[in-house]
From TrEMBL:
This is Uncharacterized protein. It comes from the Eukaryota. Keywords: ANK repeat, Repeat. It holds the Pfam family Ank_2. ANK repeats lie at residues 29-61, 62-94, 160-192.
Amino acid sequence: MHTAALFGCCSACKGLLEAGCRPNDQDEDGPTALILAAEDGYDSIVNLLLAAGASVKIVSSTGVRALSIAAGNGHAEAVRLLLSHGADKNFVMEERVPMLLTAIYRGHRDVVNLPIESGINLESRWKSWTPLYLAAVGDDITTVNEWLEKDVDIHCPGPDGMTILHHAIRHGRHELINHLLDMGFDVNACMKPQMPDNWRFRLD
C-alpha cells in the first residue's frame, strides 16, 4: 500500500484496499499511505484512503500529519479533502516542521487560505514567527492586507524584534505602510532592542 501511494498508483491502492489492506498501517519510517499520498498531491489516492477510513490524525516519526505535509508542498485539493474529513487545522502550527509557515514562505496562497478560512489562529507562533509577520517579510501584500482585516494584533513584533510597520519601512513597502497607517497603527510602537540568535526563518 505504501509503495502504491508513494508512486501514485491509484488502481493498485484500490485493489489493495479491496483485498483487505489496512489504510492506517505505518511503515518503518512512520508515515501512513495517506501521508505519502498527501505529500505528493495524489488527490485521488487521498480521497480513496479517506473513504476507506484512513485517519487524518496519525503523526509520522518525523512529526508531521497528512494535512501539514500537503499544505507545505502546496497541494490545495489534498488540503481541502483532509480538512473536510476532520483534520485539525491548528495542528499545522504545532509541529517541529511549521508547514503552514512553509506554505506562506513558498507563496502557496491557495493552500494557506484554506486553513485560514477554516478559522486557524493567525496569532499562533513558531519561534516568534506568526503567519502575518512571515507574509509581510515575504512581501505578500495581498495576503497581509486580507489578514489585517481580521482580528489580529498588528503591533505584535516578529522574531527580529520589528513590527510589520518597521519591516515595511525598512524595505520600502509603501502600499503596506499606507494601509497600516490607515488602520491606525501606533507609530510609536517600539521594536525590541536585540534580536534572538534564531530569528531567521529556515525550512531545515
